[in-house]
Amino acid sequence: MGMLAERYTNDKERGNAMGIALGGLALGVLIGPPFGGVMYEFVGKSAPFIILAALALGDGVLQLLMLQPSVVHTESDPPSLKALVCDPYIIIAAGAITFANMGIAMLEPSLPIWMMDNMGASKWEQGVTFLPASISYLIGTNVFGPLGHKIGRWRAALLGLMIIGLCLLCIPMATSINHLILPNAGLGFAIGMVDSCMMPELGYLVDIRHAAVYGSVYALGDVAFCVGFAVGPALSGTLVNTIGFEWMLVGMAVICFAYAPLLTFLRAPPTREEKKVGIDNPGIVSDGGTTGGSDGIVVVASAPPGAAVENAVTKL
């Protein structure tokens, strides 16, 4: 993701590229199980791993030849990990990724068992239950890569978290595997909305609030993604045993509903210049307001890109 953010400096193009890249993740999840099953059954248990190793090596060679990676020294100092972690806007975006993926991470170990107990589901039904989520995730990432830039990534991610909450509430109501198709599809689509919007948003936040060096911020993005898939399964077994499968999903839905409004803070985050103006001249309002300066100079307070705010000019 950091490489894509560096290659695509235009925010709209970056969102499109990251949507396609996240679609590749969904495609791997979609193809992986049937590919592994067929190769294991008809070729041998080592065959899928040998083929994947060859594909990974070929992909690495292609990246080396096509992208020609090199060490580039930038004029601006890269933001420290501490500065990024202490940035509330980056934490909000990363938190959305975590909570969006935590719901399905909780379902992965617990839903098949719940299906056996409540539906008498067979093994193949347990295996295909997440197939609608994988397909819809592939669709969601490719649709909201470009669409998120048009309607506002914060708005798309907020809507995605709300849909995740609704789908989690619907899953315990299912009485057959057919009833799980729509909630799982909605869940995957909504997760695709959040991921494809918040990943490029992290790069945008670094651009406007720090320096255009993306390695650390996308390390945080990956950590947020991994935390969701680490904490979700770890808590799932304990929560199912203590409060039950239904209440576990209700609790996760409430968390998604409660977190979603925080994304409104990403509507127009302050830029580097606004932060600096606010620190150097506490009397100046940097969001377009007009107030007195302190040094007898003309001050222009810039607004965030795309915000319909006029420049504020103050004179003593």
TrEMBL record:
Biological processes, Gene Ontology terms: aminergic neurotransmitter loading into synaptic vesicle
A molecular function GO annotation: serotonin:sodium:chloride symporter activity
Major facilitator superfamily (MFS) profile domain sequence ranges: 89-316
Membrane topology: Multi-pass membrane protein
Matching InterPro entries: MFS, MFS_dom, MFS_trans_sf, MFS_Vesicular_Transporter
Keyword tags: Membrane, Transmembrane, Transmembrane helix, Transport
This protein's record includes keyword Transmembrane: yes
Coiled coil (residue ranges): none
Pfam families: MFS_1
GO cellular component: synaptic vesicle membrane; terminal bouton
The keyword Transmembrane is annotated on this UniProt entry: yes
Cellular location(s): Membrane
PANTHER family: GH10249P
Name the UniProt record assigns to this protein: Major facilitator superfamily (MFS) profile domain-containing protein
Species this protein is from: Phlebotomus papatasi (Sandfly)
